[in-house]
């Protein structure tokens, strides 16, 4: 566990340790964890160049104005898009690639709890956002991330550390209930990061579980069951809930600290140096500094349980099947594995 005091101390060094002009892309940043982390980054990064993507134009305009107040020295671009559709993801990535040759940070939080919905591209809606769209952003922007001379990091906020059984007969999780969906989707996310990291060992990839955070995702849910569930769990959430600003600071640490370096590290790309009594995190491969990390909100390294789960997926061929399925879906929908 990294103490919150150590996290804040590390974040305080961003303005003096990281170079000016970092380019960061936040996907799903018009509310919740994406918005709060974006603002924490802008508060501290000198002269940042920010692109943030979301569905709601009025929220984008509001946040853009707030970012200018927080840091007048930065450059801010809101990109409106429904990224549940991979064709829209590709359009956004073409827009970004035309404007930036280098990206330092890709921070992904897009998601949904609408389990009964399908996209018109034939994807299960929550998986389209949590898995397919996020993975598409990463592979599309990999050349820009690899070109960065300073920080090079991908952070995907979902349920790192909660990996479990994968159902190859239902990769999209169309027929899975909530209890099966989370470990299945979580494993697919981490396995995709491992596959991509083999192509780009100079980038660090972190899959993080943020803890109990009030993000607004539940507002999408309607009907009697969600309403009753919210009432029943209200007291539990009140006790366990992490304040949204604290969540932003914790995610900023995960996005910038050298506790999570690339597997093929070089000086200047690791992030803010670790402080006293803080060690390099253990990666998904069981090695310190492994380059791919599945962590919780306390910034722990990848647990032995998760390491064992992932190792079994590699041995029994599940990891290869997940990545083959992903590329097949990309080709089915867009015609290619990347833009």
From TrEMBL:
UniProt-listed PANTHER family: ALCOHOL DEHYDROGENASE-LIKE C-TERMINAL DOMAIN-CONTAINING PROTEIN, YALI0E05731P
Record-given protein name: Short-chain dehydrogenases/reductase
Transmembrane segments: none
UniProt source species: Apiospora marii
Assigned keywords, A-Z: Oxidoreductase
Domain of life: Eukaryota
Organism taxonomic ancestry: Eukaryota, Fungi, Dikarya, Ascomycota, Pezizomycotina
Pfam families recorded: adh_short
């Amino acid at each position: 566990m990294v103490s919150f005091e150590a996290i804040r101390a590390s974040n305080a060094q961003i303005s003096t340790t990281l170079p000016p002009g970092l380019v960061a892309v936040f996907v799903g940043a018009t509310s919740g964890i994406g918005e709060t982390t974006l603002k924490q980054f802008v508060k501290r990064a000198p002269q940042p160049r920010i692109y943030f993507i979301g569905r709601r134009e009025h929220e984008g305009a509001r946040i853009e104005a707030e970012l200018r107040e927080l840091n007048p020295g930065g450059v801010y671009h809101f990109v409106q898009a429904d990224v549940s559709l991979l064709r829209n993801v590709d359009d956004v990535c073409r827009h970004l690639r035309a404007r930036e040759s280098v990206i330092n940070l890709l921070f992904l939080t897009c998601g949904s709890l609408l389990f009964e919905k399908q996209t018109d591209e034939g994807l299960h809606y929550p998986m389209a956002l949590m898995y397919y769209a996020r993975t598409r952003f990463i592979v599309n922007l990999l050349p820009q991330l690899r070109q960065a001379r300073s920080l090079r990091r991908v952070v995907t906020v979902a349920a790192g550390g909660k990996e479990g059984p994968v159902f190859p007969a239902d990769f999209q999780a169309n027929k899975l209930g909530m209890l099966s969906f989370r470990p299945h989707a979580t494993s697919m996310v981490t396995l995709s990061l491992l596959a991509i990291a083999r192509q780009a060992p100079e980038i660090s990839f972190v899959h993080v579980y943020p803890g109990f955070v009030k993000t607004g995702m539940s507002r999408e849910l309607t009907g009697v069951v969600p309403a009753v569930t919210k009432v029943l769990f209200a007291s539990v959430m009140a006790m366990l809930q992490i304040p949204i600003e604290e969540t932003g600071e914790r995610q900023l640490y995960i996005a910038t600290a050298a506790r999570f370096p690339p597997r093929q590290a070089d000086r200047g790309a690791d992030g803010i140096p670790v402080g006293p009594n803080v060690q390099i995190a253990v990666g998904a491969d069981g090695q310190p500094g492994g380059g791919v990390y599945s962590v919780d909100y306390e910034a722990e390294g990848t647990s032995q349980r998760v390491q064992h789960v992932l190792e079994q997926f590699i041995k029994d061929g599940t990891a290869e099947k997940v990545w083959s399925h992903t590329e097949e879906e990309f080709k089915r929908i867009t015609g290619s594995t990347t833009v």
